[in-house]
Amino acid sequence: MPEWPVLTGFRSLHKENAIVTLKEWFAGGRRVEVALDPNKPAQKFSIFCRIEGQGPGLTLLHGFPTCSWDWVKVVDRLKNDRQLLMFDFLGFGDSDKPRNHVYSIFEQADITEFLWQHFDIKSTVLVAHDYGDTVALELLARQMEHKQSTQIQKVILLNGGICVNYQRPLLIQRLLRQPVLGTLISYLLNERTFNKRFTSIFSKSHPISESELRQHWQAIVRRKGKRNYHRIIQYLKERKRYQARWEHALEHCDVPIRFIWGLQDPVSGKSISDQIRKRLPDADLMELEDVGHYPQWEVPELIGKEILKSF
């Protein structure tokens, strides 16, 4: 049985004023028209995308409730000699946020495949976090079924509820799932409440700044996105409904998977990493003792370095 590294004592060298702001991030990308059903040409969505660099493909999938800006602190470390695809899932960031829409992990996987074809990406390393982890597992399941043209070469998963029975959703997440109450909470949710809940999933060693919080909130409310909170979060029910499919892909796919896990994450931290150890005793698992739910935001130098090891 392998020795799993448990790393401690990371100090972020990142200067906040050096990062690309959310406004600059959106200005530096473009919205791509996505039509998933050829039989319904009128049903199209615009998806915000950023393509940076040239070389082997590297696709980065963001989490809930944020957007592709999640990766801003690692981009400069990754884009040399690699082609990065970063995009906002439907309902997130600067992508379309249709109001009366049934949001689905399967649809987000369809969008990912569409963008791979659109940008002529034949093979890619896939890096995912949180909500993106589940999209990644659906893509792996499709690859096992030989149902997609783009070849996933390797997967790196950061904190997410990949073992659904062991995730610990926040109270507000549980309430948002409720049919009537969730709608009301979406309507009443404000920046102050968001800041309080979002701050709680970062480690004390690597707290998020007020400026960063403000910009994450701006991404959520952009294009009237706050009103969809209760709809998008139904992915938690999807995780339960399709648990067997996605956990089978996790445990049995032949694609190498690396796990980089912040143990101070109250939602999907040590309880999930313990399951990874139990189910995949030979897993490539790196545990970060003093990191919370957002490793790529809290210790970007380390995450960038570890991603590069995949090539």
Task: Please bin the fraction of helical residues.
Answer: 25-40%
N- and C-termini, Cα separation = 25 Å
Rg over CA atoms: 18 Å
Mind telling me the CATH superfamily name? Alpha/Beta hydrolase fold, catalytic domain
Backbone structural class: alpha/beta
> CATH first level: which class?
Alpha Beta
- Largest sheet geometry: 9 strands, mixed
User: Spatial order of the strands in the main sheet?
Assistant: 1-9-8-7-6-4-5-3-2
The average pLDDT is 92
**Which fold name corresponds to the CATH topology?**
Rossmann fold
Helix-strand string: EHEEEHEHEHEHHHHHHHEHEHH
SS strand fraction: 15-25%
* Shape designation: globular
What is the domain tally?
A: 1
The counted number of beta strands is 9
CATH architecture: 3-Layer(aba) Sandwich
Low-confidence stretches: 10-17
> How many separate helices?
14
Structure write-up:
There is one protein chain. A nine-stranded mixed sheet has the order 1-9-8-7-6-4-5-3-2. Helix 4 links the parallel strand 6 (123-129) and strand 7 (151-158). It is globular. It has one domain (6-308): Rossmann fold (3-Layer(aba) Sandwich). By secondary structure, it is an alpha/beta fold. Helix 3 packs across helix 4 (131-144) and helix 4 (131-144) packs across helix 11. The protein contains 14 helices and nine strands.
